[in-house]
Amino acid sequence: MRIKLFINVGILVLVLAGCSTSYYYSEFIQPSKAYIPTKIYAVGVLNRGASAKMASTIYTDGVPFEYIKGIPKKASAKTIEALKKELEDLGRFKLIDIPWERELRDQRKFVEDPLTEEEIDSLCENYKVAGIIALEGVELTIRTQGEVNVVSVNDDLGNPVRVPEFTNRQEASYTAAWRFYDGYSLKAIDTYQQTYQRDFNRVAYSAGDAAQVDAQNLQLMDVVKEAAEDYYKRVSPHWVEGFRVYYRGGSEEMYGISYDLEYNRNWEQAAAKWVKLTESKDLKIKQFSTFNMAVASEMLGRPKVAKEWLLKSIEIQNTNKAEDYLETLNRQIVIYEVVDRQLGL
Q1: From CA 123, how far away is CA 115, in angstroms rounded?
Q2: Residues 124, 129, 130, 135: is their CA dihedral positive or negative?
Q3: 207 and 76 in one domain?
Q4: With contact defined as beta carbons under 8 Å apart, do 111 and 137 qualify?
Q5: Structural domain that includes position 69
Q6: What is the pLDDT at residue 17?
Q7: Which residue has the higher pLDDT, 84 or 18?
Q8: Distance of alpha carbon 103 from alpha carbon 116, whole angstroms
Q9: Sign of the dihedral defined by the CA atoms of residues 261, 266, 267, 269, in that order
Q10: β-strand 93-98 against 41-47: which pairing, if any?
Q11: pLDDT tens column, 309-330
Q12: pLDDT for 11-59, tens place per residue?
């Protein structure tokens, strides 16, 4: 829980407590009726990101040192594996693997040459899928840079000695390009490319040991998992943490409700008590409890009801906080409507 304090110079000291919750929303760019399901649709997963002949460049102190084949293919396979795990855990799609047996494009041109309408139609028909998530290309570059420092260590007898320490810094730069093909329009309705970077350090007491780079197992999972999770969030509903504020003070009864809420996180119970205070003759208490009813309604998944309560609070007294919250609720209402349509509700 994150706490925010607002001090109102007047008879009462008003405390607004920030309470953390989660919201369900989606980031579809151009939704297609073919894959925003009222039921679970089959979606193909196609990996044509890299061939076994494609190589990764390893730079040492800015100079190309070595070209190792097979790493891009391994990285693309791990990316697809991580994406499928995320999607399978979500349960939104039934995933069908689609092998790619044709020639792959030049690694440096992997964003070119999308699937044709004929290819999309043929693959969707043959594998009985409504759409295709395709990893269109990857590029992995490794950069290394070394330095030497003198450090103190203990020898076999426990005596301190000064020895050189060799540090080899390795940076993995990974680019992944995706397309989401729609089997209804036979077009790519989403194209996305992003680059991710991770730094790793290798420390040793000899230059040879520090310089050893096992490129095939260079902690690739962190960077490829980031790429997979990024695209998963782009095409799937997911949870994000948000924060809302509500009035804690104003009266002993208001403080008691907020104290119980922070202890048991029971919004239904808090709303049942706040709603009685919305009839208070004290305008401050009425305003605060009405505002809190808006927050409680949103926390309980009813943003339209929340907006109704907030407008009542604004009628009593408008505040900058209420105006900001109104904008937030308007966005939440649109988000909920989109998600409801996607889930067939």
Answers
A1: 10
A2: negative
A3: yes
A4: yes
A5: 41-236
A6: 40
A7: 84
A8: 15
A9: negative
A10: parallel
A11: 999 999 999 989 899 999 989 9
A12: 222 333 444 333 333 333 333 333 343 456 789 999 988 877 887 777 7
